[in-house]
Amino acid sequence: MENDSNNASISNSFYFLLNNLAGISFVSYFFWSGISLLIGAIVLNSSFSNYSPKINNQAVCSASSNVIGIVSLWVVEGLSFISMCIAYSVVESTCQTFDNLTFSIQAMGVIVKYLPTWIRLIHVFTFCQINTLFAQISLLPECNSSGLQTTLIITSVTWWFVAIFGLICKKRIAIPPHIFDPLRPKTSFMTEIHLVLKTMGP
Questions:
Q1: Which tens digit of pLDDT belongs to each residue from 94-151?
Q2: Burial category of 83 from C-beta neighbours within 10 Å (exposed 0-12, middle 13-18, buried 19 and up)
Q3: What is the DSSP string of 2-44?
Q4: Residue 63 is part of which domain span?
Q5: Span 37-55, pLDDT tens digits
Q6: 63 in Cβ contact with 98 (< 8 Å)
Q7: DSSP track, 124-193
Q8: Nearest to residue 62, comparing CAs of 133, 125, 128?
Q9: For the chain, what is the largest distance between any 2 Cα atoms, rounded to a whole number of angstroms?
Q10: Whose CB has fewer CB within 10 Å in the chain, the N or C terminal residue?
Q11: Does the keyword Membrane apply (predicted)?
């Protein structure tokens, strides 16, 4: 009986996820943002390896450490978005009254409510890294490659897609009461950062 209940819960969560991938929703925002960042990380890593000028099969472009940083953070950000997509689907499809919640469901709820805002801090940081990468590819002769310039364009488009998609979703998605994070009268530096980051997505 318990196995049947677990299977039904998994089926409901999977159906909820698939049913909300199209259009503007929390699921589509988390899923497509995560997929875009993971694909962007793969493209950036492989393109930099292929197009970076080499001497004795060693890349001479000094932007390699910056590229590794962007790729690593995008993987973390992308996997976090996918995790939030799954967590939101599980919580929304299995909890109608939010009574007698299990610890795992409560943990998923905390992830969905608080993690998105702070993951955007990584997104802002990678914007600074991309600008640094732009300067390196534009100014350093050892990084002068048309392939790297194309890679930089693709990387920038990926970043802006996630940012703009977040702004669109912020305007069009009504936040459910159980994950609504109201403004608090007490302000601090961290609160101000939190408010700015919240404007970047639902």
A1: 655 555 566 666 676 677 777 787 888 899 999 999 999 999 998 888 888 889 999 9
A2: middle
A3: HHHHHHHHHHHHHHHHHHTSSSSSHHHHHHHHHHHHHHHHHHH
A4: 2-198
A5: 999 999 999 999 888 888 8
A6: no
A7: HHHHHHHHHHHHHHHH-GGG--HHHHHHHHHHHHHHHHHHHHHHHHHHHPPPPGGG-----S---HHHHH
A8: 133
A9: 67
A10: N
A11: yes
Residue type, 34: G
- Residue predicted with more confidence, 44 or 172: 44
Distance CA 177, CA 185 (A): 19
58: three-class secondary structure by DSSP: strand
In one-letter notation, the amino acid at residue 183 is: L
- The pLDDT of residue 2: 44
Q: Backbone phi, then psi, for 201, in 5-degree steps? A: 180, 170
Q: Give the separation between CA 37 and CA 155, rounded to whole angstroms.
A: 9
Give the CA angle between residues 122, 128, 130 to the nearest 5°.
100
- Provide the pLDDT for residue 200: 75
Helix (H) or strand (E) holding 55: strand 54-55
* Burial (Cβ within 10 Å: 0-12, 13-18, ≥19) of residue 37: buried
pLDDT > 90? residue 76:
yes
User: Does 74 have pLDDT greater than 70?
Assistant: yes
Residue whose structure tokens are 């919240």:
198
Q: How far apart are CA 90 and CA 94, in angstroms?
A: 6
Amino acid at the residue 60 = V
